[in-house]
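Structure ticket #2291
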Amino acid sequence: MNRAERRRQERQARQTGEAAGAPAGPQRLQAIPPAEAMRLAHAYRQRGRNAEAYALYRRLLLSHPDHPDGLAGCGVAAFQLGRPEDALRLLRRAVAARHDFAQAHNDLAAVLQATGRLDEALAACQRALRFDPKLIEGHVNLGKVLRQQGDLEQAAAAYGRAVALAPDHVGAHYRLGITLQAQDRLDAAAASYRRALELRPREAQVHYSLGTVLHSLKRLDEALAAYERAISLQPALLEGLFEVGKPRHIHALFERGEHARAVAALDTFLLRRPGQSCALALKAIALDEVGERQRARSLVDFERLIRPRLLRPPPEFGSMDELNAALAGWIRQHPTLHEAPAAFSVHRGLSTGELLQGDKGPTAPLSAWSAARSRTIRRACRRTPTIRSSPTGRSAGTSRCGRSSSRPRASRCRTFTRRAGSAGSTM
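Resolution: structure written out below.
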């Protein structure tokens, strides 16, 4: 729920009478049977009308302040309205009013997990299941907490108990698949995803997750079919995939050698999102692979926008060659260096994780040096004239040096098989 929707619901709640918990007017205090209030509030919650549900619960609690179900329902509605601390207070009152209230313990666990209090969330899950071992959502929530804590084996066991109790619980099958995939139990993960899709065939995210497993198993035909099904069900899924640099359907086409098909798919996406950097980078790679090097060069040839300047190294290094040699040695032995297939932003190369965390090695002096370089680049960008034509597809006369150009990053290094010969710049 976005902020505007929350505000709308809060306005509705104030109109109903009790959104902020203020005393109601006499006309609002007319007696209402608790069972009827609970029924109406539950109906509101089922329809997503959480502000009205919250108002009804508050009205009930004015006359029955220790009503366990009212406190628990009000807490859940408060959480849905973006008030986690109010939700925690109300849910704690609910379990204090009835200590064996398994559902309230489970709801409390969900809010604690959402607010990052994982140890408390784990304890609340365990209490919920102690009072009701067959509480399906209790096992699901326990799996979520354990997975977030990194205990994948116990998380998978919790999801397994959930699907044993409720074989038609789509969310439990899906989360079990995610956890099994994280353990590299790929065939079992695929089976869990397929079971979820048998129950709910139009779940785009499950199709896509199944595709990632089949991709890892090198079953590329099946993976592509799963990816394409996911995208056909939810075209907006592509936006997020390109934004995080992981459009795996394109990578699968690369691995199959179908670069012309990849170009067509990328062109289709770029019609909707001209200038999207990940799509343009992948298109340049695909064009190069099919021999259309001039078209590829037009996407990546930014040298026409660059003014050469002699960089002086940080004072700790005698020359740029010395700095580059130190950085290259540091990168080659860095513990995060790994072979990065097309699933990331390199193709046939190696990639590191963050170089500026923990022991920084020769990158330590670069922070102040990089900040000074960034200021120089920003000043140059402000003086750069508007680009009249741009291969990114942006409108003519609207493209200047972008923000990304003015903030060079030294935190990641990627090594490509085709290296550009640019003296004095390894970042």
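Closing remark: The two ends are 40 Å apart (CA to CA).
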